[in-house]
């Protein structure tokens, strides 16, 4: 049944309950229907910095931009218009919604996840659209957005070339999938990479990358069979983006300290929580495994832990890079890079074990970047229009059901979001200048030998004044 026929069928079913002016539109072609507007949310979807849209009834549209949620001034005419929109989206995928089937969920290959409900399942019609733009992420864009320093970027590129098992952790919507996508694009072309994505969030089109969509696999035996074949084929890199505990457990069982080249994402707030979570997953699938034994397996299977978090302004950053060193008697996990109080990266003065692999691969990275006095550098000259106000990126992602956003007549007019970003960037520069001034004063005072300035003393003094 064509889209036009499906829309006509819906109209006939609702004609007794809906006024004439509230009926769905007729379309001359299927392409015209796909490019039709999404009502009040159509132009909102064209903003490249948009993470998600949540609609709860005709008058409540909530937007998440750069991890900040605001209520939109846009609204639908009424609930009938919103319900017709939801039914149209479902019909495009061959699903008919009604009171007996009031739920629709679909993951588009273009990077959009849609979840919709109708009464009586919910008190009002609701629509949730999640836009995954990770396929556009690169290590360079992470630098531009100050998620990483230039030195961290070099280390990340080195991770793509050396044989190490890496665990990327963070809470939801931090940087995990984005970072995994960026790393996948930097895998050397002479390396064979396999990507397993059970969340259907990103695809890599490089010729040396093979994508497996495990979101379509419900049978554990099928999952085990495919994963075994993948690991046994010994790819240079195995990247796994998942929250599926069965898949995580089977992955750890398969690699079992023998495979090197795994990069796995995990939802956890810190490294201790991540180790405990992975250990519990192993224990849940093995009756005879004690906690200390499970932890030993996890620590022996991973070499590096990358933590991601949001700062106070909601910006996503790599908060630390840690190395697992089992030769240490007391602390197996040691910090290599962390964030300072200005949310800039700082070396901890430890030359990691993986630096030997970097030298063996003749990668152009000096050991001076691990010096505790080394000052990390950041990308300069951020282009606001190019990086934060793109008009066309999401058009590719949402081409199944949206149209272009009209460009403003006056290109010199800045949006409120652009002004907000500029303000944040200005604050960053001021904080950096303040740190440089503080370092200068500290150095002068220490040279005079009269006293020693300690940042901790200043902070304690400020706290006492408060």
Outline the structure in words:
The strands form 2 sheets. A 9-stranded mixed sheet has the order 9-8-10-11-7-12-13-14-15, with helices on one face. It has a 6-stranded antiparallel sheet with strand order 3-2-1-6-5-4, with helices on one face. The longest helix has 33 residues, at 416-448. With 466 residues, it is an alpha/beta fold. The protein has 2 domains: 3-131, Beta-Lactamase, CATH 3.30.450.90; 147-370, P-loop containing nucleotide triphosphate hydrolases (Rossmann fold). The radius of gyration is 26 Å and the shape is globular. Helix content is 36%, strand content 18%. It has helices at 3-14, 30-34, 79-92, 139-144, 150-159, 176-184, 220-232, 245-255, 271-284, 291-301, 354-360, 384-388, 393-397, 416-448, 455-465, and strands at residues 50-56, 61-65, 68-71, 103-108, 112-117, 126-131, 166-170, 193-197, 209-213, 237-241, 262-267, 304-310, 316-324, 333-339, 345-347. Helix 9 (271-284) packs across helix 10.
């Amino acid at each position: 049944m064509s889209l036009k026929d499906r829309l006509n069928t819906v109209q006939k079913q609702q004609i007794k309950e809906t006024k004439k002016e509230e009926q769905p539109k007729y379309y001359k072609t299927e392409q015209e229907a796909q490019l039709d507007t999404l009502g009040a949310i159509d132009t909102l979807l064209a903003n490249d910095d948009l993470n998600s849209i949540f609609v709860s009834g005709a008058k409540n549209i909530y937007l998440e931009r750069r991890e900040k949620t605001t209520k939109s001034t846009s609204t639908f005419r009424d609930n009938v218009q919103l319900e017709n929109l939801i039914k149209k989206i479902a019909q495009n995928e061959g699903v008919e919604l009604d009171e007996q089937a009031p739920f629709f969920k679909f993951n588009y290959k273009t990077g959009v996840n849609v979840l919709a409900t109708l009464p009586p399942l919910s008190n009002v019609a609701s629509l949730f659209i999640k836009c995954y733009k990770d396929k556009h992420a690169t290590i360079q864009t992470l630098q531009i957005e100050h998620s990483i320093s230039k030195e961290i970027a070099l280390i990340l590129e080195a991770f793509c070339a050396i044989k190490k098992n890496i665990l990327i952790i963070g809470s939801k919507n931090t940087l995990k999938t984005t970072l995994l996508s960026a790393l996948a694009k930097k895998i050397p072309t002479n390396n064979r990479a396999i990507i397993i994505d059970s969340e259907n969030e990103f695809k890599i089109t490089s010729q040396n990358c093979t994508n497996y969509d495990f979101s379509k696999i419900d049978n554990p035996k099928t999952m085990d069979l495919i994963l075994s074949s993948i690991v046994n084929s010994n790819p240079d890199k195995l990247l796994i983006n998942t929250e599926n505990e069965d898949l995580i457990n089977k992955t750890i069982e398969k690699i079992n300290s023998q495979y090197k080249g795994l990069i796995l994402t995990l939802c956890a707030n810190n490294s201790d929580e991540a180790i405990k979570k992975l250990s519990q997953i192993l224990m849940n699938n093995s009756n005879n495994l004690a906690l200390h034994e499970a932890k030993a397996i996890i620590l022996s299977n991973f070499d590096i832990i990358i933590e991601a978090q949001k700062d106070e302004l909601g910006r996503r950053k790599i908060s630390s890079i840690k190395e697992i060193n089992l030769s240490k008697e007391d602390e197996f996990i040691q910090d290599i890079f962390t964030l300072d109080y200005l949310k800039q990266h700082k070396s901890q003065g430890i030359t990691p074990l993986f630096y030997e692999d970097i030298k063996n691969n003749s990668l152009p990275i000096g050991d001076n970047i691990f010096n505790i006095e080394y000052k990390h550098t950041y990308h300069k000259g951020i282009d606001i229009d190019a990086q934060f106000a793109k008009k066309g990126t999401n058009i590719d992602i949402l081409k199944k059901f949206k149209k272009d956003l009209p460009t403003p007549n006056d290109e010199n007019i800045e949006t409120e979001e652009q002004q907000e970003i500029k303000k944040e960037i200005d604050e960053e520069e001021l904080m950096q200048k303040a740190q440089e001034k503080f370092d200068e004063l500290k150095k002068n005072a220490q040279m005079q030998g009269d006293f020693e300035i300690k940042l901790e003393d200043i902070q304690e003094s400020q706290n006492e004044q408060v």
